[in-house]
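During the reporting period the student researcher (J.K.) took over the structure-prediction task from the postdoctoral fellow and processed the backlog of single-chain submissions. One of the processed entries is reproduced below for the supervisory committee.
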Amino acid sequence: MHGMINRALQGFLVATYGDDVWAEVRSIADLPFDDFETMLTYDDSYTMACFTAATQVTHQPPTALLEDLGTFLITHPPLGQLRRLLRFGGATFREFILSLDELADRGRMAMPQLEMPEIVVTPLGPHRYRLAARWKMPGIGPILFGAMRAMADDYGALATLRLAGVTDGEERLEIEVHDLHHAAGRHFQLGEVEA
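J.K. obtained the following structure tokens:
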């Protein structure tokens, strides 16, 4: 697994639960190092060991922890580049949803070695969508749930989301958009570099 993914998990645990929790997770997972390095690649077993240890130490169910991680990936200021990459998908939340088919390709353009989930978007009606995601590690559905909830807020949209199970290795999420302009979204301008 790319170090950026592992570092995001580590950053989430430290920012949400503190350094002591990360130290305990690291110990239970039996990591041979103190911190993940962003630009290195690690064996997937390290990622799974850390996540399993994190559920034990935080006493959180796996799905809840993954949802919180998905939200963190969008809302944590030091990870603003991911939010920016996603916002390039469209001017509205609906356009953004429909652009998720291209997310893996956009991600590879920005960082060729990063393994992004493959997402297929299927419209289920004028305001309803199904996301079917495939990734090398289990749990992308709840991560997407948290990320999509945060992106709806980012756009100022009102939407309901539902995890829709796993079919043939695809983790599914359904989204119903109720109002594209429910609230003021966060500022975003295409040509602007954020501080």
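The committee noted the following: The first helix runs from residue 3 to 17.
J.K. will present the remaining backlog at the next meeting.
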